[in-house]
Amino acid sequence: MKIHNFSAGPCILPQEVFDKMAEAVLNFNNSGSSIMEISHRRADAQEVIDNAIQLVKDLMNVPDTHEVIFTQGGASLQFVMVPFNLMKLNGGKAAYTETGAWAKNAIKEAKRMGEVNVLASSADKNFNYIPKGFSIPSDVDYFHCTSNNTIFGTQMKSFPNSPVPLVCDMSSDIMSKPVDVSKFDVIYAGAQKNMGPAGSVVTIVKKDILGKTGRDIPNYLNYETHIAKGSAFNTWPVLAVYGVMLNLQWLKNLGGVPEIAKRNVAKAELMYGEIDRNGMFTGTAEKEDRSEMNATFVLKDESLKAEFDKMWKEAGISSLNGHRDVGGYRASMYNALPIESVQVLVDIMKEFETKFG
Ligand SMILES: *Cc1c(COP(=O)(O)O)cnc(C)c1O
Prior knowledge:
By secondary structure, the chain is of the alpha/beta class. About 35% of the residues lie in helices and about 15% in strands. It has 2 domains: about 15-255, Aspartate Aminotransferase, domain 2 (3-Layer(aba) Sandwich); about 255-355, Aspartate Aminotransferase, domain 1, CATH 3.90.1150.10. It has helices spanning about 15-25, 45-60, 75-85, 100-110, 190-195, 225-230, 240-255, 255-275, 305-315, 340-355, and strands at about 5, 65-70, 95-100, 115-120, 145, 150, 155, 165-170, 185-190, 200-205, 280-285, 295-300, 315-320, 330. The strands form 4 sheets. A 7-stranded mixed beta sheet has the order 2-10-9-8-5-3-4, sandwiched between helices. The protein has a 3-stranded antiparallel beta sheet with strand order 11-12-14, with helices on one face. A hairpin with a 4-residue loop joins strand 6 and strand 7 (about 155). The chain is globular, with a radius of gyration of 21 Å. The two termini are about 30 Å apart. The site of pyridoxal-5'-phosphate has 12 residues, from helix 3.
């Protein structure tokens, strides 16, 4: 049976990516070696990381003022690297918005290194909306926001004009729709939400903001190290980055970010249309802030949970359970999820209403 994978991360990837990765594990580019046993310094490995970096640049129209790097440690290490690279050693200050669990973790790390000004928070309503109408002070070293709140199903639909460097955690919606990279100073994203397998992180950084904090930054944590070494400062995960490279090639071949954005809108409209139409369910996020990537919803009558769970599991749907902080259900509709999978879920929701409504 075909599995419809609605997992919030690690994400579904196109079948051709799995096929090509499997082939490379056995025999990489007909070299007779597995991709897992070759040196990351070999020319054909070097080509993988160079291609992956170039694909990020092409797909996101990254301007020459910015560089793209691949590192490890997940988005969680970026919570640490951002203040290390941008927050001044003396009197360091940063502004954050608190829009969910990941934003909270980012704030926690920054607080170890300086003063953090939380400009706005949606904690009062269990993060079911995106706070708006705050202003960013000009006396902070940077402003940090989270574009898509994976757990709570909310998404920023626009970005503020910032008088200070603008930093964004785009882990769960990077390359899902066009963004103007020139507006940002740092964009980062753990690969496993919308770009590839777990094991690498993409950071896009504006070069001229670096080297200004007065901090002695540990080598690995310094963006300048990875820029200078073309993301090959130390042993990088060749298989994981190869997966990202293949997925980005897939995305480029189908028409790039503008094309996938259209498909993502169509999937989200289908999903939310049903959540709103169907009397058995309620969406948990404020309508205007709903995420195109992660749709969160709950049953109106919790006593029917076992019945609904049985139905979607029998239809081949996997990983639909919501995060424990929200409960209910979360349909993650990342780039590689086909609209046919959303249709299968919508059909099950209709059938459930017919049976139990
Ligand atoms: C998953 C996620 C993270 C954490 O990513 P790791 O790579 O596991 O550290 C951070 N931010 C957002 C928005 C996420 O969805």
